[in-house]
């Protein structure tokens, strides 16, 4: 099994920025795992401009923005695996994945960065009545069909939800010859940027219906129309306000959800407000050495913000690697003498392997953080029936104090009679531990 300093799950804008920041902060052994057939993530299908104003101080399309990062990754020869699905991430940072070339494989990481992005809410989350005909797509799926596959999903279209991707697809479909009947928004205000309302709707005279929603979908085999109704302040349809729209396609642009199935299975604590993992100021999850950034953490409005946050995660992961060390120990709890592998991260034990019992794991953690020993030896006795008395420390003392303890006993002599447990020397070597007799010796 191969070992890497950092494994990054996701090769989109977050994963790429995290990889570059980690390399810039001194980590050379990095692996990016990406499920698509190219790096860049969602940016590859976002052919519209508006990206990079903060990061590069110029306006780029999605593929152009991604290319800036991909070129650096290639230049620095950061390895990556495409068409690779990550199946499981374990708390010890072992990552299980699968692809056609390697089959099912595992890699061991010292740190993992979660950068899986987000997904769109499906129709099932909306509870719209009607059959399940063809012609219902999320806006992102339609974007991929048009911009990557070259397929126009419909000719007469209604869009439910006015998030940025819905607004952008209203323009994109219009430019490709489709007729967008309306963009329907249940809230009193659009969820998209004002610039997108202007350039995607107003420029093409596409109506934006605020405080409206789709209440019914017509058609069995294919969408043939939808019913749009006004809603009250609670978002409930107002009777008698329904309006029929003849269409063959309904696009859903009703929000994004962080892609966190792997995070939940890992056991990281989740934030119910963001639907992403709980992280500290270093963007580290509740699983030590596992970091999260970008839309997997919370949905961002700008890709520039994703890149900035991901760079911070990559830097922090690199710092954590420098604070990581591994040790090999032989367990001395019992005669079996198990060979132990112990990992320390920022002074905390995060992995113990090779032990065959819980006592072995407890020994390993104590041995690498606070090693102690019991000292047993002999000292002379005056006036006793035997010349030497066996003694020991009442409890363990720090391993580093063992030699000091022996030096302190060098000139100590006991006086007979001696009972087992008698204190021979108090607070040996300033450890707070007494030296006691372990043998009974009577007077001559």
Quick synopsis:
The protein has about 450 residues and is an alpha/beta fold. It is built from nine helices and 29 strands.
Walk me through the structure.
There is one protein chain. This protein is of the alpha/beta class. The protein has four domains: 2-119 and 257-322, FAD/NAD(P)-binding domain; 122-254, 3-Layer(bba) Sandwich (FAD/NAD(P)-binding domain), CATH 3.50.50; 325-370, Single Sheet (N-terminal domain of TfIIb), CATH 2.20.25; 376-437, CPE0013-like (CPE0013-like fold), CATH 3.10.530. 23% of the residues lie in helices and 30% in strands. The protein has nine helices and 29 strands. The strands form eight sheets. Strands 1, 2, 5, 6, 7, 8 and 19 form a seven-stranded mixed beta sheet that branches. A hairpin with a 2-residue loop joins strand 21 (339-345) and strand 22. Helix 1 (13-24) runs parallel beside helix 2 (62-75), helix 1 (13-24) packs parallel to helix 7 (303-322) and helix 3 runs parallel beside helix 4 (164-175).
Helix/strand class: alpha/beta
Q: Which percent bin holds the helix content?
A: 10-25%
User: CATH class of the largest domain, please?
Assistant: Alpha Beta
Contiguous runs where pLDDT drops below 50 for at least 5 residues:
none
CATH fold-level label of the largest domain:
FAD/NAD(P)-binding domain
How confident is the prediction overall: mean pLDDT?
A: 93
Major β-sheet profile: 7 strands, mixed
Q: C-alpha Rg, in Å?
A: 33 Å
CATH superfamily of the largest domain: FAD/NAD(P)-binding domain
How many domains make up the 3D coordinates?
Answer: 4
Query: How widely separated are the two ends?
Result: 68 Å
Using DSSP, what is the number of strands? 29
The percent range for strand residues is 25-35%
Architecture of the largest domain, CATH level 2?
A: 3-Layer(bba) Sandwich
Number of helices: 9
Q: In one word, what is the shape?
A: elongated
Keywords: Oxidoreductase
Pfam family, one: DUF1667
Domain FAD/NAD(P)-binding: 4-305
InterPro entries: CPE0013-like_sf, DUF1667, FAD/NAD-bd_sf, FAD/NAD-binding_dom, Metab_Enz_Cyan_OpOx_G3PDH
């Amino acid at each position: 099994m191969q070992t890497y300093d950092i494994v990054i799950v996701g090769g989109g804008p977050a994963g790429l920025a995290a990889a570059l920041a980690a390399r810039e902060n001194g980590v050379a052994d990095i692996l990016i795992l990406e499920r698509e057939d190219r790096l860049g993530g969602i940016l590859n299908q976002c052919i519209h401009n508006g990206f990079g104003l903060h990061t590069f101080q110029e306006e780029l399309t999605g593929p152009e923005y991604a290319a800036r990062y991909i070129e650096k990754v290639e230049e620095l020869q950061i390895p990556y695996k495409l068409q690779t699905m990550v199946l499981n991430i374990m708390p010890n940072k072992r990552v299980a994945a699968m692809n056609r070339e390697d089959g099912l494989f595992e890699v061991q990481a010292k740190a993992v960065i979660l950068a899986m992005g987000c997904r769109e809410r499906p129709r099932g989350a909306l509870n719209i009545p009607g059959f399940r005909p063809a012609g219902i797509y999320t806006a992102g799926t339609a974007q991929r069909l048009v911009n990557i596959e070259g397929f126009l999903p419909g000719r007469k279209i209604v869009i439910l939800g006015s998030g940025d991707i819905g607004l952008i697809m209203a323009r994109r479909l219009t430019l490709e010859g489709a007729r967008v009947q309306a963009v329907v928004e249940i809230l009193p205000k659009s969820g998209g940027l004002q610039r997108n309302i202007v350039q995607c709707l107003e420029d093409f005279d596409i109506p934006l219906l605020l405080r409206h929603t789709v209440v019914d979908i017509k058609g069995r085999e294919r969408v043939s129309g939808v019913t749009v109704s006004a809603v009250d302040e609670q978002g409930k349809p107002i009777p008698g306000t329904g309006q029929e729209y003849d269409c063959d396609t309904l696009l859903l642009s009703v929000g994004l959800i962080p892609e966190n199935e792997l995070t939940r299975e890992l056991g990281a604590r989740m934030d119910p407000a963001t639907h992403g993992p709980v992280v500290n100021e270093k963007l580290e999850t509740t699983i030590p050495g596992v970091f999260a950034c970008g839309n997997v953490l919370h949905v961002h409005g700008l890709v520039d913000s994703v890149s900035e946050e991901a760079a911070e995660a990559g830097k922090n992961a690199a710092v954590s690697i420098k604070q990581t060390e591994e040790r090999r120990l032989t367990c001395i709890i019992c005669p079996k003498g198990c060979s132990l592998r112990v990992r320390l991260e920022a002074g905390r034990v995060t992995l113990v392997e090779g032990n065959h019992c819980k006592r072995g794991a407890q020994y390993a953690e104590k041995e690498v953080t606070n090693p102690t020993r019991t000292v047993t030896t002999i000292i002379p006795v005056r006036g006793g029936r035997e010349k030497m008395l066996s003694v020991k420390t009442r409890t363990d003392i720090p391993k580093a104090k063992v030699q000091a303890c022996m030096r302190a006993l060098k000139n100590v002599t006991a006086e007979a009679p001696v009972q087992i447990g008698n204190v021979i020397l108090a607070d040996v070597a300033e450890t707070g531990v007494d030296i006691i007799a372990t043998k009974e010796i009577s007077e001559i």
